[in-house]
Fold this sequence. Notes:
Chain A has 13 helices and no strands. By secondary structure, chain A is an all-alpha fold. Chain A is globular and about 80 Å long.
Amino acid sequence: MSYLVRRLEFFFITLWATLTMNFILPRIMPGNPAQAMLVRYHGRVSPQTVHAIEVAFGLNPGGSIFQQYLEYLRNTVTGNFGTSVTFFPVPVGDVVKQSLPWTLGLVGMATVIAFIIGTVIGMLAAWRRGGVFDAILPPVFIVISAFPYFWLALLFLLAFALTLGWFPLGFAYDLTDTINFSWSFIGQVIWHGFLPALTIVITSIGGWILTMRNTMITTLAEDYVKMARAKGLSPLRIMFMYAGRNAILPNLTGFAMSLGFVISGAILVEIVFNYPGLGFTLLQAVHSEDYALMQTLFLMITLAVLIAVLAADVVTAILDPRTREQG
Amino acid sequence: MAIRVVTDQAAVQVPIVTGRRGALGAVTRGLTRNRKALAGLGIFGFFVLLAIFAPLIAPYDPHALQFDQMLQPSPAHLLGTTGTGQDIFSQLVFSTRESLFIALGAGLGATVISVIVGVSAAYMGGLWDHVLNLFTDVFLVLPTLPLMIIVGTYLNNRGLVVLIGVIVVTGWSYGARQLRSQALSLRNREFLEASRVRGERSAYIILFEVLPNMTSLIVAIFFGAALYAVLAAAGLQFIGLGDPNSLSWGTMLYWAQANGALLAGSPVWVLAPGICIAALGAAFALINYAFDEIGNPALRPVRRARAGRISMSHK
C-alpha cells in the first residue's frame, strides 16, 4: 500500500510544482510581458476579467503575494482560466476542451501501439540473442531515435501526402464536414490521423525495444527461467509467461516516466500536420502571446501525463506483489 | 524529441578504477573497441571538421542574398537556393558551428547539474536524498517542450544563451537519476569505507574517489544530454523560438517551413538540415548506447561478451 501512497505523493507534488511554476514564471520574468497583454485587453472585457488577469499574472497586486497565490489556486481549481486572446472572447477552458480530445486520442493510441509492438520486438530480440533480428534492430532504432519528430513528420508529409497523395495534408477531418459519430466521419479521422500517429510510433518505438531487450536479457539469466527450461516447458511459454512477464514491469515504469518526452515530440508533430490538438493550439497561443492559454495548456498536458503515470503505477502495484509488500 | 530509456542501473556492477589515469584510459579503450562508438565518433568528428573549416568548404557567403530565389540543385548551387536567394549548401556548412555549439554547451551544462544533484543525493542520503530524488523525478516527468516554449516566450529574448539555458534547465534530470543509482551502488564499497576511515573530507572522497569511478557513466550522460540538446534546439528553433537571423539547422528548417518549401517544390531545403540534425543526433545516440554496453557487459553482443568478461576478471 505504501508504494501507492508514495506515488500519490509524487503525483500531487508534481501537480503543485506545475501550478506554482505557472504562478511564479510571469512574476520573475523581466519586462513583465503580461502588461502588454493587459493593454490589448483594455476596453474589450469586463472589469472582472481584467481583475482575473491581474491576479493570474501578478499585475497591480491586491494584497500580499500569498493572498494572490491563494486566489490563483482557487481560480485554477474552479476552472476559471481567464479569456483567450487568440480566440477572443472564448474562455481558455473552452479552447482547451476542444483540443484536448484530439491530442489524447492521437498520442494515446500511438503510444499504446508503440509500447505493445516495441515490447514484443524487444522480447523477441532478447530471446534470439545474437540472431539476425537482434543484430539489426537495436542499431537501426538507436539511429531513428535521434531523428527530430517534426522532421520525420515533414518527410512523411512530403512522401505520402504531397508526392503520392495517399493521405491528406493535415487537420483531423475534412473541414467541409462537421463533427459527428457516423462511420464515414470516423473513417476520415483515422485517415487524417494515420501519418501523425505513424510518426509518433516510429520515433518512439525504439525506446521500448531497447529497454525491453535489456531487461529481458537480465531476466533470462534468472534461476526461475533455468528451472523452467529444466522442467522442459515449451519455449514460447518460458518466453512469455516466465521471462517476458517479469521483464515487462520495469518497462512499464519506464514507459510512464518517458511520456513527458513523447508528448513533447507529439506537440511538434501536431504543428507540422496542423492537427487541432493541444500542441497546435499551443503554437497559436505562442504566436499571439496568449499567456493565459499557454499556461493552461501546459497545466493540461502535465496533468494528462501525470494521470497516465499514476495509471501505470496502479497497474504495476496490481501486477507486482513486491511493490505492495515493501515500502 | 529524444526517447529516454529509463532503466534502473543500480543492479549494474561498477568495475573499480584505481588511479586517475585509469579512469579516462578505460573510457578511451571502451570507445575505440566498440563498433557503435567508432561509428558515432566518426560522424561527430566529421561535423567538428566541418565547423572548423566552414569558411574553406562553403563556396559562398551564407548570408548573401545575391542569387535567384528557390533555385533547384545544380553544380553552381549544390543544394539550390533559399526563398530569399541564399546558397543552401553554404548555409548548411556554416550552421554546423552553432548547432554543435548548442549541443556541446547545453550537454555540458546539463551534465554538470546531473552530477551535482545525482551524486549529492546518493552521498548525503536520508531526507536530502528523498527531496533531491523527488525533485529529479518531477523534472523527469514534466513535459519539457511546453515548458521550454513558455519560458522562451516569456523571456522574449531569442538569444543563444537563453536557448542553451532553457535546454539545460529541462534536460538534466535523466542523467541525475542514473548517476544517483550508480553512486548508491558505490556508496558502501570497501575503498570508500577505507577513505572514510583515513579521515578524508567528503569533498575529497566525492571528487577523487567517487567521481573517477563514474567517468564512464558521466561521459555517457554527456552524450545523452548532447543528443537531447540537438533535438530540443532544433524543435525550438523550428517553431520560431530561436534567433531567426542566426545560422543553425533548426533555424534553416524554420525558414524553409515559413516559405512553404515543401509545397513550393524545394524539398532539399527541408531535407538537408534535417539529415544533418539526425546524423549528429545519431552520432551522440550511438556513443551513448555504446557506453551502456561498456558499463553493462550483459548487454554486449554475444560473442564478444565472453572476451569482455575475461579481460574484466584480469583487472
